[in-house]
Amino acid sequence: MREFLLCAAGFVLAMVALGLVRILRGPHNADRMMAAQLLGTGGIAVLLLAAGSGLPAAVDVALTLALLAAFASVAFVKSGKSSGSGE
Amino acid sequence: MSVEVMFSAGVALLVLGVAAYTVAARESFSTIVAFVVYGLLLSLAWMGLHAPDVALTEAALGGGVTGALLLGACARLRGEKPSTAELGLIGRGLALLLCLGVTTGLIAVVFLLPEPAPTLAPEAVQALASTGLGNPVTAVLMAYRALDTMLEKVVLLLALVAVWSLAPDRFWGGRPAFGYPVETGGPLSFLARVLIPVGVLAGIYLFWVGADAPGGAFAGGAVISATGILGFFAGLFWVPAVGGFRLRLSLVAGIAVFLLVGLGGFLWASHFLAYPEHYAKPVIVVIEIAMTFSVGVTLAMLVVGPPGKALEP
Amino acid sequence: MTLALNVFTVVCVVAGAIFFLAGTVGLLRFPDTLTRLHALTKADNLGLGLIMLGLLPHVDGPFGALKLVAVWVLVLVASASASQLIARSVRKDQ
Question: Residue B176, SS3?
Answer without folding.
Answer: strand
